[in-house]
Design a protein that fits this description.
With about 280 residues, this protein is of the alpha/beta class. It has helices spanning about 20-25, 40-50, 70-85, 100-115, 130-135, 160, 170-180, 200-210, 220-225, 250-270, and strands spanning about 1-5, 10, 30-35, 55-60, 120-125, 140-145, 185-190, 215. It is about 40% helix and about 15% strand.
Length: about 280
């Protein structure tokens, strides 16, 4: 169901939770930030899975079109849009926060208000992977998820591989809040992924420390040395494109189950913003 919030199209998933507990799902709002290069069918399917798992899920259209089209033409048009869009410093900028986080922060506040001021989860993936770090400055964001962060898209220096498109000030604020409020951050990527280099997630993990960063990297030994999984070294999208519902030990399926557990725990521990 599309909504219009602050001039932006936001899709709300209307699929009911599999356990029928609608009240619990209302207390677990989740904002899903779509990947490069558009709001894909795979991303919407991910939102449906989260809804069935017991969450209220919102997906804003950030760039491109929600037409499900893929291919070189879509990729080129998205790249051109990002290069010219003042809301993004996505291509080369290393330590600049993305301007789009201002309006996304306002959207986080709005979603929280729709759910009686509950804390919300924010899931970033690929291009949007590290945005939840900046959004942690919003008190309502209590369950940040960082999946295969890919900014800067053209990381041509060692520093570019370590950078993740967040300013030092925003990172310091996020780390300070995590430590003060005991918030945990969920991070994931495929170990051999070159689009989201290992140095990037390692830098994020080092900033938050082991106590506050939950590393759910999908290890190469789990997916490359098991031919039955049919996953390659080019695997990138941890939560969307490669997903299968079974078996439970299929690496992306296992990751999804771990994510559901993380979200439910964090939203239960930190979701009540009233202080009760």
């Amino acid at each position: 169901m599309p909504l219009n919030e602050g001039g932006r199209v936001v899709y709300k998933c209307t699929v009911l939770p599999a356990d029928g507990d609608v009240a619990a799902a209302r207390n677990r709002p989740v904002l899903v930030l779509h990947e490069y290069d558009h709001l894909s069918i795979a991303c919407l399917n991910f939102a449906i899975r989260l809804s069935r798992a017991g969450f209220s899920v919102y997906v804003p259209l950030l760039f491109g079109k929600a037409d499900g089209k893929t291919g070189l033409g879509t990729t080129l048009s998205t790249t051109a849009e990002l290069a010219c869009n003042g809301q993004w410093h996505a291509l080369f900028a290393e330590h600049q926060s993305q301007p789009i986080t201002k309006s996304l922060g306002e959207l986080c506040d709005t979603i929280s208000s729709w759910h009686h001021r509950r804390g919300i989860a924010v899931i970033g993936m690929c291009l949007t992977g590290a945005l939840p770090i900046t959004l942690m400055q919003r008190p309502c964001v209590v369950a940040p998820v960082i999946a295969q962060p890919s900014i800067p898209l053209f990381a041509i220096t060692p520093e570019g591989k370590r950078a993740f498109g967040v300013s030092k000030e925003d990172l310091d604020a996020a780390v300070k809040r995590a430590k003060e409020e005991h918030l945990r951050v969920f991070g994931t990527r495929y170990e051999e992924d070159t689009i989201s280099p290992k140095e990037r997630l390692e830098a994020i993990a080092a900033a938050f420390g082991k106590e506050y960063f939950c590393d759910h990297t999908i290890r190469a030994t789990d997916y490359l040395r098991e031919p039955k999984w049919d996953l390659t070294a080019k695997a990138h999208a941890t939560l969307t494109l490669c997903y299968k519902d079974s078996p439970d030990n299929y690496p992306p399926r296992r990751l999804f189950l771990d994510l559901v557990t993380f979200l439910k725990n964090q939203l239960q521990l930190h979701g009540d913003l009233s202080g009760n």
